[in-house]
Amino acid sequence: MAKAVKTPKTNAMRELESAGISYVLHTYEDDGDESVGLGVAISEQLGEEPGQGFKTLVCVTPSNDYVVCCIPVADELDLKSAARAAGEKSLVMMHVKDLLAATGYVRGGCSPVGMKKRYRTLIDETCVLWDTIFISGGKRGYQLELAPDDLIAFCGATVAAITRGLSDAAGRIEARAHFAKESAPQTPPHPKLLRREMTLTTWARRTTPRVGRSAGLMTILTIVSRVTGFIRTWAMAAAIGMSLLSSSYQVANNLPNML
């Protein structure tokens, strides 16, 4: 009886298992291609939905520290946005020849999990639109499918908008939102958008009653002021003993001003 062939585990797989994070391993045929668009080709081969597959890029800061960026395979990294999210003045892409020494991975097999060291990690905000996303398994031919929340927590990652082509990203968000309405369970909205919506809703609920009470109080006080002013005018006329005609004149003169 032939023995079952064991799949060699990568650092990424071992670290996820040690952390108790579940994942699904997907394999694809690696032909050694390193051309532009490799990530898109892999996603198509595995039948992933557009935007669900994420590639891992490594950037260098002015002080020669490293920042790991995970973005959808079809998108381009916005270095300025990534620098802001990382709290750096600027970022530049790491040269491919330095990738192995810095991370332990090669191009086409670079994973945000299991690098030689833990680096600051940024993940594009569109990751939260999916129940699961695909990342490199740490070896060419390996892809790992896992929940984005698990990846964010494991890496201590910052979720931010770090890609170019905002119109394309917006299109994916709109399409995904429409899909979520038609299916269950629904994909939760982006935490930032949810917090903003909750903040505005809470502010409106707290402010509206106060505005209504203030407006009502102002109306009542205005009416009281007008009535007391009218009474005061008649009292003054009676006190100084003016004629009916003079009093009527004063009242006629002051009444429009009081109203």
Concise account of the structure shown:
This protein has 8 helices and 8 strands; from the N terminus they run H-E-H-E-E-H-E-H-E-E-E-H-E-H-H-H. With 259 residues, it is α/β, with parallel strands linked by helices.
Largest sheet: 5 strands, mixed
The coarse overall form would be elongated
Low-confidence stretches: 195-204
The helix content is 40-55%
**What is the strand content?**
5-15%
Which value, in Å, is the CA radius of gyration? 33 Å
Number of helices: 8
**Average of per-residue pLDDT values:** 78
Give the H and E element order. Answer: HEHEEHEHEEEHEHHH
Structural class: alpha/beta
Strand order of the largest sheet: 4-2-3-5-8
Q: How many DSSP E strands?
A: 8
Span from first to last CA?
Answer: 104 Å
Task: Write up what this structure looks like.
- A hairpin with a 5-residue loop joins strand 2 and strand 3.
- The protein has 8 helices and 8 strands.
- It is an alpha/beta fold.
- The strands form 2 sheets. A 5-stranded mixed β-sheet has the order 4-2-3-5-8, with helices on one face. Strands 1-7-6 form a 3-stranded antiparallel β-sheet.
- About 4% of the residues have low confidence.
- The protein starts with 10 loop residues before the first helix and ends with a helix.
Tag the structure with descriptive keywords.
3-stranded antiparallel beta sheet; 5-stranded mixed beta sheet; elongated; alpha/beta; 259 residues
Task: Please outline the helices and strands.
Blueprint: H1 11-18, E1 24-27, H2 38-46, E2 54-60, E3 66-72, H3 79-86, E4 92-93, H4 99-103, E5 120-124, E6 133-136, E7 142-146, H5 148-155, E8 158-160, H6 166-182, H7 191-240, H8 244-258
Parallel strand pairs: 3-5, 5-8
Antiparallel strand pairs: 1-7, 2-3, 2-4, 6-7
